[in-house]
Write a structure and sequence with these properties.
Belongs to the UPF0410 family. It is found in: Cell membrane. It is built from three helices and no strands. It has 92 residues and is mainly α. It has a domain of 53 residues.
Length: 92
């Protein structure tokens, strides 16, 4: 994997994580690095699920794949917020 691939994966993970965070209602007291980590994991897992379902290779944007990734990110954010409770995670 090249440096460009890593940077683009981080940017896509940040976007997917942010979209997943927007879907979850209420205030999420988690740091941005954790949102990005959840987003990267959701993007990777969503791609695997989309490929297994046969919906990853379409003409144009893969809206179904993006939808799967955002739903997985929302689930990840909700789980982390549920585990940490109201106190959140330290930002350091």
């Amino acid at each position: 994997m090249t440096a460009t691939g890593i940077i683009s994966a981080l940017i896509i993970g940040l976007i997917i994580g942010a979209l997943g965070r927007l879907v979850v209602p209420g205030r999420q007291n988690i740091p941005i690095w954790l949102t990005m980590l959840i987003g990267v994991g959701a993007a990777l897992l969503g791609t695997v699920i989309a490929r297994a379902a046969g919906v990853a290779d379409t003409a144009g944007l893969d809206w179904t794949e993006i939808f799967i990734q955002v739903v997985l990110a929302a689930i990840g954010v909700a789980l982390v917020v549920g585990v940490t409770g109201r106190r959140g995670i330290s930002r350091y």
